[in-house]
């Protein structure tokens, strides 16, 4: 009889390299459940509590903390120890009064401490759009969520101001749009993939090539020190019009 569905277990060796686990201490590790982020771009909540923050020594202790509704992700209580937390997610721990945002670094995803005023919103990159009957538009974000934009008159294209790869500033957990940043030269952006992941700065050039897919176009980023980096558009996450709207760790 053939197997049904995905495997529910994961060995430590093929697990994402940025997970803070010992590769040879044990054979198995936890596998995140299907959710807003793929396994290669997330970290299970139990590892966040036990291995990243050090609030527990064992998986059982971490599971107990999570089940007691002490952990919030994007403003909502998460009771599932295998919940996949990923890029730009806001994790709050009520008992200790600390809040973190998951951001990329050269070693992978990390938890960056943020102030309370930053905990009320999340940046979401528009991956694609869906147009429904009547002209209403659904924006699909990088974390699996979506929002419906109701258009009063579908015959007026100027009402559709949102484009893929742009970024929306969303309140959490209400999911209300409180800001919008367009992908353009001069905008503040973050590199989320490749060898330069974690670098952030100003977009100085976008090389548009008609014979190339848009996500493969080259983008040049200039950091605060004036050093320039190149990556593809698919690895660019806009974080502000001219200045970053979120705090970021310093890059050496």
Helical segment tally? Answer: 2
Going across the biggest sheet, name each strand in turn: 5-4-7-8-9
Order of helical and strand elements: EEEHHEEEEEEEEEEEEEEEE
Shape: globular
Please, what is the oligomeric state? single chain
**Largest sheet entry:** 5 strands, antiparallel
CATH class of the largest domain: Alpha Beta
- Total number of beta strands: 19
Mean pLDDT: 89
Radius of gyration computed on alpha carbons: 19 Å
Residue runs with pLDDT of under 50 for 5 or more positions: none
Alpha-carbon distance between the two ends:
54 Å
The CATH topology of the largest domain is Structural Genomics Hypothetical 15.5 Kd Protein In mrcA-pckA Intergenic Region, Chain A
- Output the structural class: mainly beta
* Beta-strand fraction estimate: 35-45%
Structure description:
It is a single chain. Helix 1 (45-52) crosses helix 2 (59-67). 7% of the residues lie in helices and 36% in strands. The termini are far apart. The protein has helices spanning 45-52, 59-67, and strands at residues 10-11, 28-29, 42-44, 71-73, 76-77, 84-86, 90-93, 98-105, 108-114, 121-131, 137-141, 146-149, 167-171, 177-181, 188-191, 200-206, 218-222, 228-232, 236-240. The protein is globular and about 55 Å long. The model has no long low-confidence stretch (mean pLDDT 89). The protein has a 5-stranded antiparallel β-sheet, with no helix packed on it. A 5-stranded antiparallel β-sheet has the order 12-11-10-13-14, with no helix packed on it. It has 3 domains: 10-118, Roll (Structural Genomics Hypothetical 15.5 Kd Protein In mrcA-pckA Intergenic Region, Chain A), CATH 3.10.290.10; 121-168, OB fold (Dihydrolipoamide Acetyltransferase, E2P), CATH 2.40.50; 188-240, Roll (SH3 type barrels). The protein has 252 residues and is mainly beta. It has 2 helices and 19 strands. A hairpin with a 4-residue loop joins strand 11 (137-141) and strand 12.
């Amino acid at each position: 009889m053939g197997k049904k569905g995905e495997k529910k277990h994961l060995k430590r060796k093929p697990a994402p390299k940025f997970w803070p686990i010992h590769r040879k201490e044990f054979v198995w590790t936890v596998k995140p459940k299907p959710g807003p982020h793929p396994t290669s771009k997330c970290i299970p909540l139990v590892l966040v509590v036990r291995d990243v923050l050090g609030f527990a020594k064992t998986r059982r202790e971490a599971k107990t903390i999570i089940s007691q509704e002490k952990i919030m992700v994007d403003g909502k209580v998460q009771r599932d120890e295998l919940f996949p937390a990923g890029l730009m997610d806001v994790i709050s721990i009520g008992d200790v009064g600390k809040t973190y945002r998951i951001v990329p670094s050269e070693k992978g995803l990390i938890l960056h401490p943020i102030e309370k005023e930053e905990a009320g919103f999340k940046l979401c990159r528009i991956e694609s759009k869906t147009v429904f009957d009547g002209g209403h538009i659904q924006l699909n974000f990088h974390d699996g969520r979506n929002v419906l934009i109701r258009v009063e008159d579908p015959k007026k294209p100027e009402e559709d101001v949102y484009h893929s790869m742009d970024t929306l500033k969303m309140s959490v957990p209400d999911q209300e749009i409180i800001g919008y940043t367009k992908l353009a030269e001069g905008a503040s952006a973050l590199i989320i993939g490749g060898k330069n992941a974690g670098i952030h700065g100003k977009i100085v050039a976008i090389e548009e090539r008609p014979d190339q897919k848009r996500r493969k176009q080259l983008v040049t980023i200039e950091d605060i020190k004036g050093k320039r980096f190149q990556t593809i558009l698919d690895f660019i996450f806009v974080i502000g019009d001219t200045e970053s709207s979120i705090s970021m760790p310093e890059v050496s």
